[in-house]
Design a protein that fits this description.
This protein is an all-alpha fold and about 110 residues long. The chain has one domain. About 65% of the residues lie in helices and about 0% in strands. It contains three helices and no strands. α1 packs antiparallel against α2.
């Protein structure tokens, strides 16, 4: 198969790059907020439990964002390798179409019983 049969990967990689940038920015802001809260805020009791729940939610949101980036990069890579022309399956063809015989000789092509 020639390289002309493959799609250019301009839009898909642009989308993946944008997701990476936004996810990295979100992760950096979340990390900064967690550091500020843990160093500047002195709480105890129920407020500490609520703070722990909020921090764990922020960590889960960042991890979910990176997982989404990874899935979209895999999809972009698979779209790049997908041919533009439809694939013809061998089950749609007869044996004569796959292996054409130039000259049929009676008796030679028959199966002996």
């Amino acid at each position: 198969m020639s390289s002309q049969n493959f799609r250019p990967a301009s839009k898909s990689y642009g989308r993946v790059f944008a997701r990476v940038v936004w996810t990295a920015l979100f992760s950096a802001v979340q990390l900064w907020a967690i550091v500020v809260l843990l160093t500047q805020l002195h709480v105890d009791g129920v407020v500490a439990v609520a703070l722990a729940a909020v921090i764990s939610g922020a960590v889960l949101a960042a991890l979910s964002g990176w997982q989404e980036v990874r899935e979209h990069s895999r999809l972009a890579a698979s779209e790049e390798q997908r041919p533009t022309e439809p694939v013809e399956w061998t089950r749609d063809h007869t044996i004569e179409q796959i292996f054409p015989v130039r000259k049929r000789i009676p008796g030679r092509d028959e199966v002996a019983v």
